[in-house]
Amino acid sequence: MSTSCPCESGKTYQDCCEPYHQGAPTANAETLMRSRYSAYVLGLEPYLLATWHPDTRPAALKLNEDDATKWLGLSIKRFEKTSQTKAIVEFVACYKAGGHKAERLHEVSQFVLTDRWYYISGEIE
Length: 125
Ligand SMILES: [Zn+2]
Description:
This protein has 125 residues and is α+β, with helices and mostly antiparallel strands. The chain contains three helices and four strands. The chain has a single domain, classed as Nuclear Transport Factor 2, Chain: A (Roll), CATH 3.10.450. 19% of the residues lie in helices and 36% in strands. Bound molecules: zinc ion.
């Protein structure tokens, strides 16, 4: 399969987020952010939970019950390593919920590096 990656990197899914979804560690927070967005598009809840820091990780996301959300696109605005083990990624993601008009999610997400990069939390702009 050579479909283009849902994270809109311009690469194929195989050459982009698929290896991460199969367990390869992401090289940096931006790659993790992209692979997590792709996981939302593809409904890969186990991946989203596995890349969420244990301190802030929810018990479940219920992605598959919430099939009304359709992700429409991702745009990374800023990627900044703020220390040796911390980084932020600012992004805008577009989605449609329940067939209504497209919404925009503008978030600044915090990431931390321990054994690999993890998502901590995000603040809506
Ligand atoms: Zn990707």
